[in-house]
Amino acid sequence: MTKIYTSVACNLDANILLASLPLFEQEKIEAIEWSFDALFKLEQIPPWFADLVSEFGKNNRLIGHGVYFSLFSGKWLPEQQQWLDSLRAFSREFHFDHISEHFGFMTGADFHKGAPISIPYTSSTLALGTDRLMRIQDAANCPVGLENLAFAYTLDEVRRQGAFLSELTNKVNGFIILDLHNLYCQIHNFNVPFEKLLHSYPLEKVREIHISGGSWEQNHAAPEDKIRRDTHDDEVPETVFELLSAAIPKCPNLKYVVLEQLGTALSDEQSRSRFQQDFLRMEQIVKNSKTASDGRIVNNFLPHTSLQSGHVPYEDLQLYREQNELSQILETATDLAHAQKLLASSVLNGTAWQTETWQPHMLETAIAIAQKWKNGFELK
Length: 380
What we know:
Blueprint: E1 5-9, H1 14-25, E2 31-34, H2 47-58, E3 62-65, H3 78-93, E4 98-102, E5 105-106, E6 116-117, H4 123-140, E7 144-147, H5 155-170, E8 175-179, H6 180-190, H7 194-198, E9 206-211, E10 215-218, E11 226-229, H8 238-247, E12 256-259, H9 269-288, H10 317-332, H11 336-344, H12 360-374
Parallel strand pairs: 1-2, 1-12, 2-3, 3-4, 4-7, 7-8, 8-9, 9-12
Antiparallel strand pairs: 5-6, 10-11
Helix pairs in contact: 1-9, 3-4, 4-5, 10-12
């Protein structure tokens, strides 16, 4: 039976560290997930924090989670090359058991002030994602995976995301992070049964599971309903714990279960205590769950092929133009009607983006996400 490590998203954040400290002292935290690229701009990482992540790395219990690479940007950007160069240097200094990134592309000119937004599922975006995953593998020299995205514009997009992730990761023997709160958002926002949604994903590729909390937002298109947002700023809902109990036995290659929460939501003793209680609840569920890996060969998710020297990055400049225009619309639209009017006259109209089918409440949500990130919000 494969060991599953109970883990926390532990970054250089005073509130996260204060909330996690009692769990470290009790030796409850078996692995840590580190959003390493949040520190790429620092000239020096504090020695005590470097010692912490190094210790977990030496014991093969350090996993890296990227935020800012913008995997599906249609044009190969200098910031992406800088990101890879920094990752290569970090991977020499710290031993990562695997590296993951978010599915989607980042809006905004500044990678640290952009929103993760979905992309059309086409042969071009498949080629783009494959190229970028191979470059991450080459820089990190370890297994690489992607996290499912909470946001979607349509029900069809929700239904197809798992299959697209499967096809994409097939190319590089990559794994998937199954974020259960992201699924919870889609279950609520699109009224999809959990079992049906879960089995739309390649569960044999799930190496890591995330759980977290979020928030509710007003649905102006249908005031009687609310939108579930993956904001990581509250305790884990009971439903997500139930999803965790149901998902673990179906994921034969599961290795890590990670609790995430933003440091800004852990500013007092009460919120930190709830975080600790959530971790202990997660730990108990993991201990009580039977895994699906009994007697099976576990995929190590190591690369099957290597990136050839001098291989030119794949680009789709028309997609890049469309992404830039979409970013501009989402970040500047004054309301839903304004955004719909701009989209109807944009280069996205009549393309694989299928903007004419986007659900009004989800377009409103995309506007809110993009404008919040533009004003300085940063994930994790």
